[in-house]
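Q: Hi! First time asking for a complex rather than a single chain. Here are the components, and I think there are two in total. Is that enough to go on?
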Amino acid sequence: MEALYIFMLAAFTGYEVIARVPVILHTPLMSGSNFVHGVVLVGAMVVLGHADPEDPLQLAIGFIAVVLGAANAAGGYVVTERMLAMFIKKN
Amino acid sequence: MTAKLLVDASYFVVAVLFILGLKAMASPVTARKGIVWAGIGMVVATLVTFFTPGMQNFGLIILAIAIGGVAAWWSGKVVKMTDMPQMVAIYNGMGGGAAAAIAALEFARGGVHGVVFTTLATLGALIGAVSFSGSCVAFAKLQGLMNKAWRLPAQNAVNIVLALVTILVGVGIVVSGDPTPTQIITFFVLSLVLGVIITLPIGGADMPVVISLFNAFTGLAVGFEGYVLGIPALIIAGIVVGAAGTLLTQLMAKAMNRPITNILFSPITGEAQAGSGPTGTMKECSAMDAASMMRYAQKVIIVPGYGMAVAGAQHKVYEMTKLLEEAGVEVKFAIHPVAGRMPGHMNVLLAEAGVPYEQIFDLEEINEEFSQADVALVIGANDVVNPVARTDKTSPIYGMPILNADKAQNVIVIKRGKGAGYSGIENALFFEENCRLCYGSAQGVVSEMIGHVKSLS
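A: Yes, that's all I need. Here is the structure of the assembled complex.
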């Protein structure tokens, strides 16, 4: 039940945060939110961390999860940072 | 016990950093700070996770982070600005894939119990897998590795049947409570195929909306898997992105006047317009003629498109802009909401070239001004200035807001060849009386124009 409240509040937060964004920031923001869900890396680490060390299949799936999660986080950060760096140069 | 407390407290701080970061990214002034905050949050989250009680396999975890992180970091650093959209697509797909893999591992461990947990794990797996395979297809298309549109016969029926079968298998997993490996594998294969099938027929200008939709999908999948794992940071970050991504998708779709359902179920294809092409002839002009037309104009509006960015001509274009301004010509840039490959992409590209914000205008801001402009210079843009969107009800892009370049006294179009636009539709503008076409790469033609403008002053 608690989680349901978290779901609801988080959904409103997400909506509010984006609601008044100028068009020029749509792409960087999409990229930024893409980076934020890179936190899936944490989940991937936890499942690989609890996988049975004797079971190659579990280890393989967990390993793939962490590789993908890390790529999402790292790639998302670099790309967003590069885009936003251009906006800063001006000011 | 203290380790657990430390981890949980850190996750809380991380969630706050993510939300503040996103909030800051919503304004040009604070945007840079925003990504740094979110970045700090990510590093903290990753580090404290190592202290989660009961963790093992540390060697593998570190190796996997190194492989994924370094590869993505490097590819993100070297990619050209014009290719950003497909990189966002592929990184997003990887996030979806990770969420799906988390679900797969939880099922393999037999760690999911109870209807709520199983439902959310299954739902997250479905959405994550669709986002993964769909994003891979989107990447392949934008990268030019795959043909633009590829439709099955009775595409919509196939989509719906496949989606229903997948959901049915998913329900089977939830109901059985203790799914067999066959059930799980079938479910994942179906989900992956579904993502591919949905994305394949989507082409052209609709792609950014689809990438944004998959971005929202991945967010939801991450949120659901976060619930299964009992990590609030994942729930919050995932759902916030899911909601923000959904809204962003709607904003984009609105900018293109294409409801999401149309994008998914009746994609734009060139064939739709067979038969009644525009009539008239296309008239060529030299860079010299174009340059003198602009040099002696009062007002020039430049409409940049993806073609300009691909040719890397934005720096040259800005150089010419400065020359024209020195000669007393008023120059403005008109940006269509979906110029480039995503909303805002063209602004990023022009910012890279050094064009000041004050010279860049949105569609609503500038559309009235075309009728007062002496010259509209269209560089590598096509569908966004196609007047049939206003007039021809049978055109697949009918209703999409366009830049009224055709209302200018003279229209000069720099174009690589005589082909149709990204959506495959013939452009009626090119056949208009006041329109002249300058063939060549944007880079070359604009350089030539610069030379002529200089010689005229």
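A: The two ends of chain B are 78 Å apart (CA to CA). Let me know if you'd like any chain examined more closely.
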